[in-house]
Amino acid sequence: MRRLCLMLFLCLSNPLLASDDDGFKPLFNGQDLTGWVPVNVAPSTFSVKDGLIVSTGIPTGTLRTEKMYENFIIELDWRHMKAGGNAGLFVWADPITHIGVPFSRGVEVQILDGHETANYTSHGDIFPIWGARMKPDRIHPGGWERCLPSEKRCKPSPEWNHYRVTCNNGTIKLEVNGKEVSGGTGCTPRKGYLCLESEGSECHFKNVRIKELPSTNPKPEEIALEATGFQSLYTGLDLTGWKATEKHQGHWEPSDWKLIYDGKSDAEDPSLWTEQEFGDLEMICDWRWTGTPVKRKWPKILPSGLEEIGTDGKPVEIEVDDAGDSGIYLRGSSKSQVNMWCRPCGSGEVYGYRTDAAQPAEVRSGVTPKIVADNPIGEWNRFYITLRGDRLTVRLNGKLVIENAQLPGIAERGPLALQHHGDPIEFANIFVRELSK
Predict the structure, then answer these.
(1) Could you tell me where in the chain the CATH 2.60.120.560 domains are found?
(2) DSSP 3-state of 102
(3) How far is the C-alpha of 104 from the C-alpha of 63, rounded, in Å?
(4) Residue 236 phi/psi, 5° resolution?
(5) What is the pTM (predicted TM-score) of this model?
(6) In whole angstroms, what is the distance from residue 111 CA to residue 53 CA?
(7) Residues 163-166: contacts with CB under 8 Å, at least 24 apart
(8) Burial letters 167-177, b for 16+ CB under 10 A, else e
(9) How far is Cα 95 from Cα 97, in angstroms, rounded to an integer?
(10) Sign of CA dihedral 382, 105, 23, 55
């Protein structure tokens, strides 16, 4: 009898020892965040205290599972520590944030307190975000792809609530405190990562467990992107990991998930360099112009990388709306800069090599953008940069602008930098993964 009581005590006090006869397994061990990966938040954003996952809510972002899940039942308890708090559980999500936002594509199960309107509630809304799709179980009053709950069952802060979410073959159902209230069908993706959301205020999670269900063989287009090891270079809180001097402070300004630069630093080197050096890498970086555009004329660049010369013997110029100039320095050199600007040739070119008359013709043409892929001024852009050896490939907003261009003489390793060029600009979603030789 004493042995039976002891085993019962151990099972209740340690979820990893609990019986899994019902098919559920813990997603949180009650001690640390083993099995979870910060996507775009600081190391301190999610922590474990007194057997709970504690989210500070700052910065806005997510913590995801290491593993993808397809069909499953997930249960968790949550509570907001402040009235009006906001958080969420994402299912079938991508491992990297969508362009210009702090969240990944996926389906969100809302965890919200004290907000009630005709279009959204605090009682278990479900909706797809950033390119995901879902047909809600009930027609939304505004026509949104969002299912509002059939009744209000959530308890207000700081009381605990229990969610049971069943995801199977692209169908999702949510039970709030023991009763199904919302759902949707035809979800895409229908296989991906699970995420806990941080969005502005402290939220606690516990008793997180999952039961996997048999696969229903999703098509490749129904599966989220697979994690490939990208690490965030920006905490959302401060300039940790960057060589920031006193004269950078107040100009390179952390602002939640965005890093804002006013263009006015008077540091000896006002560009912002990473402390870490990199060799071969893939890099993701979002950016947008925030200044007021003005009309300027810039030379027309030919596919060869040379300026077009008119019949009068002068460079042909094109007038554009110009909001600024910046770029990303690779391996410690301003010459190997992937440009961000509003010039006629488009962003992505490597100006230092294109304008170097000593370089062979194939080098100068190689670093000249194939197409203009910039989004309109004020909208977010995304660079996807690959550098292997001295070969550079750049995709801008999903379009190939530089392909396997050679950068003769580039160093084998060096830091990265966000360039100062005197113009205001915002950065976000800065991720890097090093490539093996």
Answers:
(1) 13-226, 232-434
(2) coil
(3) 11
(4) 85, -5
(5) 0.92
(6) 15
(7) 163/74, 163/75, 163/76, 163/77, 163/78, 163/89, 163/109, 163/111, 163/124, 164/73, 164/74, 164/75, 165/73, 165/74, 165/75, 165/89, 165/91, 165/109, 166/72, 166/73
(8) bebbbbbbbbb
(9) 7
(10) positive
Q: CA-CA distances (angstroms) from residue 198 to 76, 115, 269, 319? A: 16, 17, 34, 44
pLDDT digits (tens, 9 = 90+) for 259-310: 999 999 999 999 999 999 999 999 999 999 999 999 999 999 999 999 999 9
Q: Is 106 left (phi over 0), alpha (psi -120 to 50) or beta?
A: left
For residue 431, which of 290, 234, 299, 192 has the smallest C-alpha distance?
234
Q: Does 182 score more than 50 pLDDT?
A: yes
Distances from the Cα of 382 to the Cα of 58, 101, 142, angstroms: 23, 11, 31
Instruction: Provide the 10 A C-beta neighbour count for residue 435.
Output: 14
Overall CATH class of domain 232-434? mainly beta
Asked if residue 371 has pLDDT above 70, the reply is yes
How would you classify residue 75: left for phi > 0, otherwise alpha for psi between -120 and 50, otherwise beta? beta
To the nearest 5 percent, what fractions of the chain are helix, strand and coil?
A: 5, 45, 50
Task: Please give the Cα distance from 360 to 364 (Å, whole number).
Answer: 7
Which residues are CB-contacts of 373 (< 8 A; sequence separation ≥ 6)?
346, 347, 348, 396, 397, 398, 399, 401
d(CA 108, CA 369) in angstroms, rounded, equals: 37
Q: How confident is the model at residue 14 (pLDDT cuts 50, 70, 90)?
A: very low
Give the CA radius of gyration of the chain: 25
Specify the pLDDT at position 21: 63
CATH code for the structural domain at 13-226: 2.60.120.560
Would you place residue 437 in the very low, low, confident or very high pLDDT band (cuts 50, 70, 90)?
Answer: confident
Amino acid at site 236: G
